[in-house]
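re the bet — no i am not wrong, look at it urself. input seq straight from the record:
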Amino acid sequence: MISDAMQEAAQQVAAAGHTLEKKDDGFWYFDGQPVEVKFVIRTEDERKDIGLYISDLLEKKVGFKVDRMLLDRQKASEIVFRKPISTYEWNLYTGGWGAGGLGSMYPDWQIYYWYSPLGYYPNFNDPRHQPDVTVEDALKYIGDGSVTAGLQKLDTKYYTSEESLGPILKWTTKEIGYLLLMTQYTDPATNTTIVLNNADQYWDLQKIGITMGIMDSVRIFLVENWEFYPVNKERVTDIVSDDSIGIASRWSLMSAKTPDKHLKVAQFASTGALFMSAINPVGGITDVYSTRLWNLIHDTGGTTNFDGIYVPYRCKWTLERGEFTVPDDAVIYNQTQGWIAAHAGETAKVKVTVTCDMGDWQNGVKMTVDDIKYYIAFYYAWAYKDTPDDPYYDSALSDTAATYQTYLGFQFTDNGYVVYGTYVHPFADDITASNYILYPSMPWEMYWAMGELVANGDAYDASSKYSFSSSGEGLLQLDLLTKQHVDDLAKVILKISGLTWDDITSTTTTTETGPSVTTPTTPTTSTETSTGGGNTTTYVVVGLVIIVIAAAAWYFTKKK
């Protein structure tokens, strides 16, 4: 197959006055120079052996020279995921993925995530690779030239002929993935809107999408690894096992019992560091090691249970399908206009009433609906590019932007919100609900401060420029476990609060079952939270956050 493709390429370049030929030494040459592929090979595990084996095959069997780039995750990810493909620094990469637990029964996101430039494609930055295999190409390939025969081989139920596909025939995984995830897509070539509305149609598109993804081959999955985890049965009892990942899940460690209520866990770290990605909840925490720990120390509004169904955890909800007129007081956030009723009077397909458990943050401050409200506003600001040079924008949040487009308005309550939306799963209410459950992992002040550090670091005398999702020359990816980053974040919090360290250390707070009560020991000017709703004053919350950050920085500095 590769030889045939190279022979065809040789004819194409010959027409442009170039030469592509395989010489007697067994290697291919372009205009007299050896054809070389740049192979990024991860060194932490068996992927190193796999990469070296494939490199040997490419040289001995195919005739390509191979630049074996042996790199750990951090260096490899910088090249493969955080730079545009126009830099041309790599051709192949030994990626690897670990299951985090039993997934949903419905793989809505799989095509979008694995095989579409809208998802987790290599090279987040534009220009991105664009898939060129169409539905027609894939079905004709497996159907020996016939689209209908291809559908028959996939045993489709809804799409049974070439004519039934309509404009879908010319789609790639980009459009198929979007439709499966968002339930409708308007084809720009024909201005036809395709709506996903029944189970047969859904599973037909899954089959077609997977076929196209394999054929386009942005990713080629090779092996499945089974890992084993030893447990001291003399100390650990009642540990819950997950059918898909054994005892490597959040619930395993949370359910385990020991005689002294202390559980000691050893985690493999192959690079000499516990984590291989930056710790920030916006664009970091992407490696398996940091994800496992992060899942243990923060809560979510809902979770997927052992039956693959999305169920309440911190939040409960009531979901109503139908047609609902968006009320005049249902708002979305706009970075330049604030909370506005942009979709009042429009028709929503679903109404979800959400109530959440307002627990205490790690600093002892009571959570309020302001935390949820600002969390939502934060992502509205950062997922959309409002001006050509918008500093409050991160292109890596494109999937968040797509989700937020389905929200027509929020009505906030004391313990949650009512949301009106356009996204409705064709048959699974739990998947519909999961689209509308929004629950922060940090107090709103932390999101505000992190955003200011990333967008306007110079205004706060930050020591470097920061990004939530990327790094490079002169740019650091924000990591809340790195002392320099934490020190810069503390500068932001101090400046926006108008306080000094003396003000903070001389302020105390008492927490009751009701609203927080603040008792300053010296006269201080207080500023109420900008979004309202709670009685806790900003300066106390900010002070507590700084103390927590400073303590964390001191701890991790001592640990180094």
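see?? Residues 538-559 form the longest helix (22 residues). told u. also Residues 453 and 459 are 9 Å apart (CA to CA). so pay up
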